[in-house]
């Protein structure tokens, strides 16, 4: 789980301890006495890590052997004796050589001291900045050169993220040349660049940090750690980040995996959010430019492999709200991105690829999540499925029929609907259905948002609109979008029956009437319903006739969704508008967009006629209404199977004002 890139989080480094005789044996327990007996457990872990691709193993000294120290003890601080400086250098050289000679283990780097400012009750040793300078220049450099030791040297590892312990050595050319990496912990201190180290061309590593507080295993903790990693990579320009313990029996937050005495374990969310970095950003990658903090609580960083063109974008959303971003990278261009998500329900789960649109990707970041996007510079945009028709549910014009209690919803709490401006949902908690009618429906795909749990959706197909058969469907892995909302894509499990002309979508069950939203549905079919007449009421050209007391109104468009022209009465009397089908045509369906003020939604009536003289009232289906502002509301009226030559829209009665009802759009289909 720690080291495998396939089954785990693919860590790139392993930090070990240079044994001193307490917990870990020392290779030199007495002056000049060398003992090469390493603990089986340490060698096992190192070799298992190597099998899984780890090629950077480095070791830190907590304390030199007791005989080298001023106190004669391993614990509670004390200093390295002045007359043991060269012996300590030889000790480190032999440690590196012995691991290669005896165990075929390459020690990538050795760190001279762990938290050298702190006389801890455990293994510890105190150093002063000038001690490091002296040791590096006059002892370690010549010994490593004489013995041809390839290991890099780490200095610092102060408990606070700071370079204070090594500035003296960095400013001395001789000691600086023998210092490769400045290390630091972050139990205190702000996350900012180690400027002197960077100016001298040194790598900076955060080599230890954890939390000793009460055990946490929730997504907020995981995302908080991802934000900290981001800050080290972006704000501090660090080259490495390490957590203190991989797995342990400790009951606090000091490890990524908590072990239990019965052999079980629990992996914390921080394991996986760290994996959103470590699994994808590998040694040799370089960080590239991106807007690091586009909105409060959201953080981006980006990296690329300069040899292969592979690149990685990591997004951390430390808010409970979904956020949408358009991404385009100057340094990398690709046709698609693969997304891997860790959130409250998922751990490093791969989701469907995101396809670019004109070189730009729209990214959706669910609340409290970490998402890794990977791609390859220059990759070609994959071909996308071409659907015959797609209903975005911005209006009712494509819906053939519906039960009464539906509405088009535009509210978007917590960004849970990814800024989708209109979706269909029930207005009562009972079984409600929408029906589509297209010729020879072969396939479909629907996007559904749901609240907490996805229950109570059924699909039915029919050839004639009379006999209905259940349609089995499969749902994609839900993606958290925000505020307990999730999104899934629905597809039929198999082929639809040949000759299917109708598809019915039913919402039932659930704790709330608003718990499921149909956001979009696409069809592969032969016959597409395209309204023969779409009258936006910008003029009277598409009507057949109308009574005298009408006008086209452009006022107050801001309260009617920007609709800049609607038909309304000029007197509070019974007034009508008629539409006539073309020669040798009849009307089959209509959909009317209606606005009304306060409660003046009645009476609005629709009539059909064969001869334009005798009219029969149509029983229209009305959607639920939506507040559009300033006491105005919008609803849709729909009717099908009309088989008529004329349609009449009639406004009568109502409230106190002649303008209290307005016709915004009229869609009519001819046969």
Task: Please give a structural write-up.
With 671 residues, the protein is mostly beta strands. The protein is 13% helix and 37% strand. The protein is built from eight helices and 46 strands. Strands 34, 36, 37, 39, 42, 43, 44 and 46 form an eight-stranded antiparallel β-sheet that branches. A seven-stranded parallel β-sheet has the order 1-2-3-4-5-6-8, with helices on one face. It has a six-stranded antiparallel β-sheet with strand order 13-14-15-20-17-18. Strand 11 (255-259) and strand 12 (265-267) form a beta hairpin. Helix 2 (85-103) packs across helix 3 (129-147) and helix 7 (219-234) runs parallel beside helix 8. The longest helix has 19 residues, at 85-103. The chain is elongated and about 115 Å long. The relative contact order is 0.07. The model has no long low-confidence stretch (mean pLDDT 95).
> Globular, elongated, flat, extended or rod-shaped: what is the shape?
elongated
Report mean pLDDT, rounded to a whole number. Answer: 95
* Weakly predicted, low-confidence segments: none
End-to-end Cα distance: 63 Å
Instruction: Outline the biggest β-sheet.
Output: 8 strands, antiparallel
Count of separate DSSP helical elements: 8
How much of the polypeptide forms β-strand, as a percent range? 35-45%
Helix fraction, binned, reads 10-25%
Supply Rg.
35 Å
Give the number of DSSP strands: 46
Give the assembly state of these chains: single chain
Structural category: mainly beta
